[in-house]
Each structure stands twice: as structure tokens, then as C-alpha cells.
Amino acid sequence: MERLAQPLIAIVDDSAVVRTFTAFLLANYDFEVVFDAENGQDCIDKMHQAEQLPDIIILDIEMPVMDGFQAAAILKENWPDVKIIAFSNKNDKLSMEKILAAGAKAFVTKESDITEKLIEIINQIWLQGQMKIVS
Questions:
Q1: CATH code at 43?
Q2: How many domains is the chain partitioned into structurally?
Q3: What is the largest CA-CA distance in the chain?
């Protein structure tokens, strides 16, 4: 069986520490980060300028300028093939439902054991997108 290429990833979070840590974590699992952004508007701007679009965007919900809810809706409208993983300290049911309705495929809280959980979810989403029906 041929090995699937790894997804290209973007990290969107208003915390530089979170962006740096997440990029470091992903690099340890051979994931390539194509860009990071400090808020939703920065992400949208970088999507328009990107030479290589990410396959998956790890998106914080609470950010200044443009939050994750607004960004997810714009991303899904303009780049429907890009998968979104919401990544937030907020872990209430309303926020989860709202971000999933805006287009996120999964929700990971920053309080969880993000190393294993985040990598597991990235792999699940990527593999689901790569599945092809063979007759």
C-alpha cells in the first residue's frame, strides 16, 4: 500500500507561544506548516497570498480582529476543501456547536493532552479526505 503524503497545515492563534509550540509539535511528526497567522483576518489574507494552500487549518476561536467563527465561515465559503480543526480554551457546548456549524471538522481543547489528541485528529481528517472508493 502506498503511503499518503502528509497534509500541509496552517496554525491560526493570537498567541505567538501557542503558534510556536504547535508548529514544533507538528514538526516532530513530520507535518509541514505552510503559514501561521495571529487572527482570522491575517489567515484570510495569507490564504489569498499563499503559493501552497494548507490542507488543514488549526484555528483558535477567540482572537482579536476576526474570531475563529467568522474565519471558519469565510474559509469554508472560499476554500471548501480546506479542513478546519477548532483549537480553543473554550470548551462549552455552544461554542463547539457554533464552530462545527461554521465548518470545522473537529474540536480540540487546549486543556486536553494536545500532543496525542491533535495528531490523532489530523491523521483521521487527512485519511478520510484521502479515501477513494475502488471498484
A1: 3.40.50.2300
A2: 1
A3: 49
**Cell 487572527 belongs to which residue?**
39
Q: What is the pLDDT of residues 14-65, one digit of tens each?
A: 999 989 988 998 998 889 999 999 999 999 999 999 989 999 999 999 889 9
Q: Which three cell numbers stand for residue 68?
A: 475563529
- pLDDT per residue over 5-27, tens digit each? 788 999 999 999 989 988 998 99
Element spanning 4, H or E: none
Rounded Cα gap, residues 81 and 13, in angstroms: 21
Question: Which residues on neighbouring strands pair with residue 11, listed in sequence order?
Answer: 36, 58
C-alpha cell at 56: 488543514
* Global pTM value: 0.86
